[in-house]
Amino acid sequence: MNIDLFADSVEKQGAIGRLNAGVKLLATLLMTLALILVKDWVSAGSILLLELIALRAVGVHPLRLLGRFWPVLFGALLSGWSTALLVEKTGRVVLEIGFLLVTTDSLATGFALMLRGLAMVLPGLLLIATSDPTDIADSLAQTAKLPARFVLAALAALRLVGLMFTEWNALGQARRARGLGGRDNPWQTLKTVGGQTFALLVQAIRRGTRLSTTMEARGFGGPEPRTWARQVTYSRGDLFFFLGCLLLIAAGYSISAAAGELTFLWQ
Amino acid sequence: MQPAGIEATDFGWHHPGRAQPAFSGLNFVIEPGQKVLLLGASGAGKSTLLHAMAGVIHDDDGETQLGSLTVGGLAPAEARGVVGLMQQDPESSVVLARVGDDVAFGPENLGVAREEIWRRVEECLRVVGLEDLDLNRSTSALSGGQKQRLGLAGILVMHPGALLLDEPTANLDPAGVEQVRRAVLDAQAATGATLVVIEHRVGIWAEHMDRVIVLGSNGGITHDGAPETVLREARAELIEAGVWVPDYLPQTPQPVTGKQTPLVSAQDLSITRAYPSRKQRKQRARDLAAGQSPVLELEPVAQGISLQVLSGEHLSILGPNGAGKSTLALTLAGLLYPVSGRLEAEEPLRASSSLMGDAASGSRSAQTVSSDIASWQPAELASRIGLVFQEPEQQFIRPTVREELEFGPRQIARIRKSPLNEEELAERTDFLLQRLRLDTLQDANPFTLSGGEKRRLSVASALTTAPAIVVLDEPTFGQDAKTWAELVVLIRELVEGGTAVISITHDMDFVRALGGRAFSVGGERAGQMRRVGQL
Q1: What is the rounded CA–CA span in Å between residue A44 and residue A49?
Q2: Where is the chain membrane-spanning (chain A) (predicted)?
Q3: In this structure, which topology does domain B6-12+30-240 adopt according to CATH?
Q4: Engineered SS bond to B23: which of A89, B45, B105, B273, CB 3.0-4.6 Å?
Q5: Distance from C-alpha of B301 to C-alpha of B287, rounded to nearest angstrom
Q6: pLDDT in tens, chain B (535 residues)
Q7: Which residues of B touch A176 (CB under 8 A)?
């Protein structure tokens, strides 16, 4: 999983990458909301399918996107499976191994949830892959008028997250040099990882403290009203993108309604 | 902005809960535009004083600050933007992810208009010599020296009246030191700002300064005046405090060698920073088992390295930054896989194992391992090759200094399931504690030690398993003259006793003090091995 959110990528160079990050964020939130509101598999499935088509159309490879953030994909698939195991068991039995019982209805519910999960994560991943966190922060602070202090502190902290991965590898090597982390029993491995995590947190806190000193010394958090060096711009492309997302939701709902399957959360 | 003078009247700082103030009764007037070098023993409160001038430490209970301190006639906390502060760690000089945004951060906070901000950003990047960097360039891809210069640009862009620098070059290699010094002096000349620098390598700044102030270890000013005068009068006191005064090198005994036998041989080696995938590692193991020499599809940082590591000798690894010195050390120490070429542990190293482990089991039951260092298990590695990282904190594992030293032998005994001779371990730990002057700190948490103490502890903890090879990554970086001399003496003893010591270093005084051979990675003499006397 490539975690350095500031790193340049193919997606950032593309058409979606040039759009306004705030618009993309708003569209993502709307898509997520639209998917939370329905619980049938047809609307979730058709929105997912339309998303895949739309992504291909704008030149983004959905599989590469999911592959890059594979833990998220894994989570979406797992949520479907666990739902199938856990919900009320009605309908015909499909699978029964020991205490594992899956029925047609529970499988349908699990499947719907999995589709919904995937349809929900794709816009989010697109947002992350095509937007620089700095631009998202600018939109949040300048357009949405969220407190600048909070947004900028989060942005500076996010940069440290990338450094933490380098640090983690260095810590691993340093510990290996001292005889830790070989073929070991699970309890020892857990202890080793625990210790390494603790050391990482100590480093992160120290670095965070020094960084906040630097920020304060550069006038951060002062009484003067802040200005912004970067201008947040909106283009016609942003409008089209936003309308496209709305259209996609409407199309998904309509297909499901036409099939007589549209079920809202409260129904 | 006008250059800002700094004035202290009976100024002191008493951290809450401490018996003694960090310093007190300071009286000085730093005229606007004056260039001041601030010296003193570690623990004399130099950093606290500088942070107080920058207004980034606060008197929350009203009792912490003693006397008064003003910057440009204002209390430091109200003088936001009047002073700029630079710290030691290059990573904490950078706030944002893109070069341009990072420099613009200060003036944004001060409410400067947008067009004016970008005009200043361009101008300040030029002053620090970074005008060639793209404004959208990622800040994490910069070198340490570039990061510090970027940090300086981020300060200059606020048009401060005073520049406060806290050991700005301590973590940099000689090229980085020079870049940052030039940038600071150019910036000072261009703006006329007051300059206050803390630096224990006095030679870097002394000749460019108007004044030197020395803080005593009892919390007051002991010397204050022109650089030549102060450095002459306070020379003994500064040397005693471990300060690197100009033209001073601690006296250390002549280099020695011990019994020399080859421990590791490298032939036409290619090294890489990248880590192979599980599949690549399996293929590599199969190739080795079949007697073929494996090649990994990874990007090499350096190639064609042929050298031999000998017991009883100091080997320096030299070369410019980024050429692969640390990568070579990590590869020799079995923590990275070579891309191609031969890297073999010779018989004495393969058979050697922890003295402690053997003593414990009562017989010389040395377990021979394969000649491929990269495939050794951590315990096999730790008992043969000790590695001391540049950043001591990365290596600390246990909550007290004593446990930290006992960790290696205990870990090896545990993995080998052999009993441990507690008495002998205690004896050896006591010896190392005394030898490295850590005996009064044995119950302290390693993270709370001073820089020099941390360095000594990280070296000592690599020695507890009595490895045949000790690898040190930039052991003298940021160290005062006292710790420097102690390291030289300690390494000399190891070499005399037959240990192979490898140091990656830029410090030529250190190389000369230890003798032996020097190998160059990258640069003009890439791949050459020379005797130190011939350098």
Answers
A1: 9
A2: 25-49, 69-87, 99-128, 148-168, 239-259
A3: Rossmann fold (3.40.50)
A4: B45
A5: 23
A6: 789 999 999 999 998 888 888 899 999 999 999 999 999 887 788 999 999 999 999 888 888 999 999 999 999 988 878 899 999 888 889 999 999 999 999 999 999 999 999 999 999 999 999 999 999 998 988 888 899 999 999 999 999 999 999 999 888 888 889 989 999 999 999 999 999 999 989 999 999 999 999 998 887 899 999 999 999 999 999 999 889 999 899 999 999 888 899 999 999 999 998 889 889 999 999 999 998 889 999 999 999 999 999 999 999 999 888 889 999 999 999 999 999 999 999 988 988 764 444 444 444 445 678 899 998 988 888 889 999 998 888 899 998 999 999 998 998 888 878 888 899 999 989 999 998 889 899 999 998 888 888 999 999 999 888 899 999 999 998 888 988 999 999 999 999 999 999 999 999 999 999 999 999 998 888 899 999 987 7
A7: 335, 378, 381
CA distance B396 to chain A (A): 8
Q: Could you tell me how many residues make up chain B?
A: 535
Q: Which CATH architecture has domain B262-534?
A: 3-Layer(aba) Sandwich (3.40)
Separation in Å, CA B24 to CA B38, B45, B214: 16, 10, 14
Nearest to A180 among B85, B138, B378 (CB): B378
Strand residues in B242-324 grouped as ranges (E): 262-271, 302-310, 314-318
Rounded to a whole number of angstroms, the CA Rg of chain A reads 23
- Say yes or no for a CB contact (<8 Å) between A163 and B415: no
CA distance A158 to chain B (A): 9
- For chain A, the structural domain boundaries read 10-137+234-258, 147-217
Q: Which residues of B touch A177 (CB under 8 A)?
A: 333, 335, 378, 381-382, 385-387, 389, 395, 462
Q: How far apart are CA B151 and CA B128, in angstroms?
A: 10
d(CA A152, CA B97): 12
In chain A, which residues have their Cβ closer than 8 Å to the Cβ of B389?
Answer: 170, 173-174, 177
Chain A interface mutation, best of B105, B139, B367, highest count of A Cβ atoms under 10 Å? B105
Q: Which residues of B188-207 are buried (b: 16+ CB within 10 A; e: fewer)?
A: beebebbbbbbbbbbebbbe
* H or E segment to which residue B214 belongs: strand B211-215
Say what the pTM is: 0.85
| Residue from B265, B416, B428 nearest B353 by CA | B416
Distance of CA B13 to the CA centre of its chain: 28
**How many Å lie between the alpha carbon of A112 and the closest alpha carbon of chain B?**
35
Q: List for chain A the helix, strand, coil content (%; round to 5).
A: 70, 5, 25
**Strand B500-504 with B469-473, pairing:** parallel
Of A173, A219, A228, the CB nearest to B80: A219
Q: Per the CB < 8 Å rule, is A134 touching B96? A: yes
B53 neighbourhood in chain A, CB within 8 Å: none
Name residue B221's beta-bridge partners. B215
* CB nearest A178 (choices: B83, B89, B382): B382
Return the residue of B nearest to A208 by Cα.
B92
Predicted complex ipTM exceeds 0.85: no
Q: Chain centroid to CA B290: how far?
A: 43
Q: Alpha-carbon distance B426 to B420, whole Å?
A: 11
Q: What is the CA radius of gyration of chain B?
A: 26
User: In chain B, which residues fall in CATH 3.40.50.300?
Assistant: 6-12+30-240, 262-534
Q: Do B411 and A227 touch (CB under 8 A)?
A: no
**Shortest Cα distance, chain B CAs vs residue A194, angstroms:** 11
